[in-house]
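[Q] Does anyone have a clean C-alpha cell version of this?
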Amino acid sequence: MELRFQVNTKIQKPVEEVFDAVYNPKKLSGYFTTGGSSGTLEEGAKVTWRFADYPGDAPITVKRMIRNELIVFEWESMERGYNTVVEMTFKSLNPNETLVTISESGWRQTQPGLDASYGNCQGWMNMVCCLKAFVEYGINLRKGAF
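[A] Here you go.
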C-alpha cells in the first residue's frame, strides 16, 4: 500500500494566471506561504517557503517544471529523515477555467507516516481553496485563520 493522496479544484481563471499565482513567490506569499518564499519554482531550484502559522523553514527542491502545466518538487516529510514528492498539475478546461490537481506521495507506511500524510492532505486542500479565493477574488483566506 502506497500512502498517497490527491486534491483538486476548478478555478475560474485562465491557466496562465493560475500557474503564475503558484510559480511567482510574491503572489504565492499573498495567500499561502504567508512568511514568504525565497524564489520562483524553476526546475532545479532550491526554494525556501515560510509560513506564519508554522515554525521554521520548509526547503523544497523543484524536480520538474513545465510552464502552465506542471510543478514537481520534493520536501522533507513531517516524520523527518526522508522526502515526499508533491506534483501540481494545471489543466486548461477552457479559456477561463483551470483544473488544479495536487498529489503527494512517499511517506513511510507507519502510523507517523500516515498521520503526516493526513496533515498534508488537509494543508493542500486548504492551499487550493486559498488559491481559488486569491486568484478569483483577491482574498487571502489564511489571514487571521491561524
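[Q] Thanks! Anything notable?
[A] The longest strand covers residues 54-66.
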